[in-house]
Structures are given as C-alpha cells and as structure tokens.
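DM from R.C. (forwarded with permission)

"hey, sorry to bug you on a friday — could you get me a structure for this? deadline for the figure draft is monday and I only need the backbone to look sensible"
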Amino acid sequence: MAVRLVSQRLGEYFYQSKLFFKIQTQQTMNTIEQKSLKVGSYVNTEHVDTIVRNYKKERWLQNSERIGKEDTLNLWLSAEELEEFIQTAKMHGADGIRVCFGVYGEKCPKPGMEGKQTVAFVATASELNDDGYIVHNDLNIGDENKPSLVAYNMINPWFPPPSSASVGSVMVADKDNGLQII
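My reply, with the result:
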C-alpha cells in the first residue's frame, strides 16, 4: 500500500511538473508572440527642428512653388481623435498604424486644399509571412465583396489651436522676387 501511495504521489508530482512546464512554455511562447513592435523613439527639440528645416529645404519649398500656393507644412488633430482612432483600430484587431502620405485631388473635403499634402492613418495587423518575416497588413473589415480599410484622414492642414510654443525654425528662401521667410 505504501509503494502504491508513493507511486501515485510521484505520478501526480511528475504530472503537475509537466503541466507546470507546459504552462511555463505556453506563457513564454505568448510573451514571444506579444513582443513589442515599437519602431520609434522620443526625440528632442533639436532633432525636430533639424528634420523640419530639412523638409522645408528639400520638399516644401519646391512643392509650394509647383502647386502655386503654400503646401501643407504640418497637420494637427486632437488627442481625443487620435485616441478614438487607435481604440477603434485595436477593437478590430490592429497592432499598428501605417501613416500614408497623400495629396488631395479635385474632390477634397474643403475648398482650397486641392494639391496639398495630407496623411491618412491606416490600421494594420502584423503576421509572420512564409519566409518568417513580420509583415504589417492593412486591416480590412467588412465582407469579401466589399472590404473596407480601418483608416482616418480628415486632419486639419492649417494651424493648430493657439499655443505658447511652436515647433520648427525660421528659414529664408531666395525667391525670384527677393527673400521669403518660411
């Protein structure tokens, strides 16, 4: 009877140990699957000033001259809008947001925006492809006959509400008519 009891307890011990290791393995695998997808980092004012200055020199001035009016230099949306879009995207299974650059055509949301740059936020879901690389697919909802992106665009291309601080730098551009402050 004692041998049987010991045998039964050893069996339970090994069963529980295997179950523990199975649970541990499962938790470890879940941790690997849920690895952070962070690709950016916080930056300082100098970094932002530099990339805005570079953009003004390398893209904005030429774009503005080409379309015959000042192109979009920045976009603004409320934290509430951004949070709402992120929440909606997550609700549909998104784990990321792709920022797509675009230009408004003739059919734009507001007069005067034709030809100006904009961005659209598109929800994405990551998965491993057949080659073992992570790909970030645009997230579609709806049925096969009429899929629809989880996306957001109507972003204010003018000025943000008044604030005490402004990001960016002043640049003087040599124009045919003299100098222009950008």
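R.C.: lifesaver. Residues 76 and 130 are 39 Å apart (CA to CA).
me: no worries. Residues 2-7, 17-32, 159-175, 177-182 have pLDDT under 50 and may be disordered.
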